[in-house]
Write a structure and sequence with these properties.
Elements (H helix, E strand, L loop, with lengths): L3 H13 L5 E4 L2 E4 H16 L5 H9 L11 H25 L14
Antiparallel strand pairs: 1-2
């Protein structure tokens, strides 16, 4: 029998599996938001194996059914700028505070 967390994550994955936007993932084309949710969970597990169920759900569901909402180009621009500012100004400190084998010295996530 699946745990409550597993049931919730499965429900999120079922919703995101309906994403008509496909991206390359390994040797296959898969729904974009499904892949994104899986990557969020994998990355969270590498950095915080003791994450609460609430945090695990939030990470997996961050983009739930995102394709159903009209996206203003300015919203995407804001998200892009947020990422760039973090990489330029805060990534080094982030890496220094977390002596994690999941990060290289240059801040690139290891697979």
């Amino acid at each position: 029998m699946k745990t409550r967390l597993e049931q919730v994550l499965d429900a999120i994955d079922r919703a995101n599996a309906k994403d008509p936007n496909l991206i390359p993932d390994g040797n296959a084309q898969r729904p974009s938001e499904l892949v994104y949710g899986e990557r969020m969970s994998e990355t969270l597990d590498r950095f915080c194996s003791t994450a609460s169920d609430h945090l695990r759900i939030a990470a997996r569901a961050q983009h739930i059914e995102r394709w159903t909402s009209a996206r203003n180009p300015e919203v995407q621009m804001l998200e892009d700028v947020v990422c760039l500012v973090f990489l330029k100004h805060y990534a080094s400190e982030f890496i220094a505070k977390r002596q994690s084998p999941a990060l290289t010295a240059s801040g690139v996530l290891l697979e």
